[in-house]
Amino acid sequence: MFEIMLVLGIIAVLVGSAIYLLVGNIDVAREARVEADIQSISTQIRVYEMQNLRPPTTEQGLAALVKRPSTEPAPRRWRQLLEQIPLDPWGEPYVYYSPGKKNPQGFDLFSKGPDRQEGGDDDIGN
Q1: Residues 6+ positions from 114 with CB-CB distance below 8 Å
Q2: Mean pLDDT of 71-96
Q3: Which of 29, 54, 92, 94 places its Cα 20 to 30 Å from the Cα of 13?
Q4: What is the rounded CA–CA span in Å between residue 52 and residue 89?
């Protein structure tokens, strides 16, 4: 009986240690996913821009990559570029501005990060 309790204690310590060590990796994985999502979405925005001579406006948003925009400027050669717009790892939509606030000649695309507040030091993207 003592041996079983000892084995269970050792297993509990090992599992606890593994969880403690993995906590930092979850944040790294989330940031890597945001960077991959932004790269993918940015590529599709550039395809949209090549077809229509301009990226979607801020008002049209990223939804213009999924559904034909009904607002001006109407795209000349629209086609669906994404099945759906992904949410960031914290369950929030990505923020898109065109023209960008940081990139006035292009667009801004970023995640608000873990605090879910725009403009903080934890925003991820461009």
Answers
A1: 27, 30, 90, 122
A2: 94
A3: 29
A4: 30
Token code pair at residue 48: 């949209």
For the chain, what are the domain ranges? 2-125
What is the spatial distance between Cα 81 and Cα 22, in angstroms, rounded to a whole number?
35
Q: How far apart are CA 9 and CA 11, in angstroms?
A: 5
What is the CATH topology of the domain spanning 2-125?
Answer: Glycoprotein, Type 4 Pilin (3.30.700)
CB neighbours of residue 98 within 10 Å? 21
Among 20, 41, 30, 54, which Cα is nearest to 83's? 41
Q: The whole model's pTM is what?
A: 0.79
Is 79 in contact with 51 (CB distance < 8 Å)? yes
